[in-house]
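Amino Acid Chain and Its Fold in Token Form
===========================================
Purpose: to set a sequence beside its fold so the mapping can be learned.
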Amino acid sequence: MTEEILAVFTRQRVHALFVTELSHALRARDLRALDAQLDRLNEEGAILIAEHAVPDPHLAGIDLRIVAPLTADRPRPEAEAAAADAAESLWNKWLASFLSSHRCQ
């Protein structure tokens, strides 16, 4: 499954995805297995997993982790920085969209 995970980013031509988007792209039914594979890839330095604080109490319990692959053709510090930038960019776009349309009642 680890190769399949990394292939999603190439297929979709994206630099970062929410774990939920990745799960959907993989049609993953076993989320524990996916989490285990993500942990393994993270420990191996193949991906970065970015976590952010939940921006609204109504989202408590929702998986807002973002996964970004580290490209092997760059030096490690540069690859980590690029992955962190991709994850942060996705988060900022999602957060801006969420905050512009969400109304707490």
Summary: The chain has one domain: 2-101. The longest strand covers residues 47-50. The beta strands are 17-18, 47-50, 66-69.
